[in-house]
Target: DUF1440 domain-containing protein
Amino acid sequence: MSNAEKYGKGPLAGLAATVVLSAIMMMKQAMGLMPELNPIAMITKMSGSSTPLMGWMGHFVIGTVLWGLLYAALDAKLAGPHWLRGAIFATGAWFVMMVMLMPMAGAGLFGLGLGMMAPVATLMLHWIYGSVLGGVYGASTRRGQAVAA
Model:
């Protein structure tokens, strides 16, 4: 697979995973589960904006472009089936969020300012995101190889 194909599939998989993650986040908020854990509000606040649109845009750029492209670069270096590669990758993304984004957002290291469940809940959300990211990327890679054969 060429680099252009690889780096085209990464953001597409990132978009699919971000859509799934966003739906779960909206359900979590609608059910009132851990309302203090609101990444969209955190990104909105960090952007200096008062509109959630900026938070949503940041969320989609991070999930689609940043993590999608980085996953495409690292996929072949990870072991296991694609969904597991994605979950492994997402564990790294979670760690970055816990030690960089959470303190920058005022939630403390590992988001512990939001409570003891914050790191656990965010890890589970990242594993869902990563499994979808890797699964979609792997499926598009296999489909591309089948068409080329």
About this structure: Residues 69 and 148 are 22 Å apart (CA to CA).
